[in-house]
Structures are given as structure tokens and as C-alpha cells.
């Protein structure tokens, strides 16, 4: 049994991952911004294992530190950190981009990941064990027009993952960087500011990945034998050839 902390656990990949790992008997710390959703998920998953919930926004360092420091002693030794929280806002060229959107993506996808990791890594180093899973994107592999800042934040996740691995391997800490392709979650709804119709077109004409597919991949990585570290994993739906190319019926 592992103690696993999942950020962004209230929806999408994070929720599916928390559900799967709970059913596998791990103790899960679910983190998110919405109290009512956290409590509902805690009730749902408590039938499988022990669940602890923390409410915080990864972009808010003070709030994050207070929440993680509030963990009871039995929950403080975190074996696996899954840095899933992140966002995409807008699909505009740089010249027309909204700086609030840029700040949200940089603060959530990059600084938030760093903030959480900084809180958890010291304990892993003391115990000479641990596993960090960072959720990047195939957008890190190929920049596309109108998504430059989002792509940049996910490229940063790749670089941070590599740096973590260089710094932490001597402490017996594994680092896995996962790059999902097109996954049908509320990702596009958020990107298009709640425009459900526009978001639906992103997944039209082919079968995209599901959040459960990425959860399966994460579970595979963290359940690998102790001497095995999956450093990087790229996952596309069958219809997607590269970040910008999807074959639709």
C-alpha cells in the first residue's frame, strides 16, 4: 500500500487516477479547489480505502503550504506525488493573447507543479524513496499556432521532469513524465471558456483517449518493480499521428 497525493483530483485525469489507485488499495490524498466535489469524491472512494482531502489552489503558495502542512502525521510520508493539476486557457495568437490567460497557465502548469513538488520532495529524500509523476502533454513535443504559451508551459514540465530525475535519482526517487495526446475531458471546455459546442468539435470524428486510459498508464508506471523507472511516456489515440494531426471520419 502506498500513500499517494493527487493534485487536480476533482475532475478529468486526476479524478480517474484517484479512483483507480484507490481501488488498488492505496491510501489517497485528493487535492482540488472545490470543497463540495472533494467531499463527494472522498465519500465515493472511502468504500475502497483510506482517503484524505485537501482543498487548495496550486497557484496559491501560501494556501498550498498551509494545506499540506496540515496533514496528520500518518499521512505525511507521501510515497507518490502525481502532479496533475493544470489548465489551458484561450486559443489565440500571441499578438491577441490575454495576459490573464497566460498568467493562469504559467502559474498553474509550471509554478504550481514546482510549489507542490518543493513541499513533498524533502520527505522523499529523507526516506530515500518516492515517485513523482508529472503530467505534461504532446504539446511539449510540437508547438502549434495559437497555443504557444500552453505549449511552452508543457515543455517546461518536460524540462522540470528531466531536472528532477537528475537531482533525485541518487536518492532512490523515480520521476515519470507523461505526455497525453487528445483526451476527452473538460480540458477544451475550460480552454474555450465554457463553450460546450466549440469544445465538442475537438473530439468529433474520431475516438479520443479517455481519462481512464491515462490513469491506467500512471498505475502501470507506479506499480513497476522497484528497479524499473518509466522515465517518459507518450500516449496518443490511434487516430492521432502527432500533436497537430488527427484523422477524422
Automatic annotation (TrEMBL):
Molecular function terms from GO: oxidoreductase activity, acting on the CH-OH group of donors, NAD or NADP as acceptor
Q: What is any Pfam family matched here?
A: adh_short
UniProt cross-references to SUPFAM superfamilies, sorted A to Z: NAD(P)-binding Rossmann-fold domains
User: InterPro entries attached here?
Assistant: NAD(P)-bd_dom_sf, Sc_DH/Rdtase_CS, SDR_fam
Reading the lineage from the top rank, the first entry is Bacteria
Keyword list, A-Z: Oxidoreductase
Concerning its family, UniProt says: Belongs to the short-chain dehydrogenases/reductases (SDR) family.
- The molecule here is called NADP-dependent 3-hydroxy acid dehydrogenase YdfG
- Specify the species: Chryseobacterium takakiae
Taxonomic path: Bacteria, Pseudomonadati, Bacteroidota, Flavobacteriia, Flavobacteriales
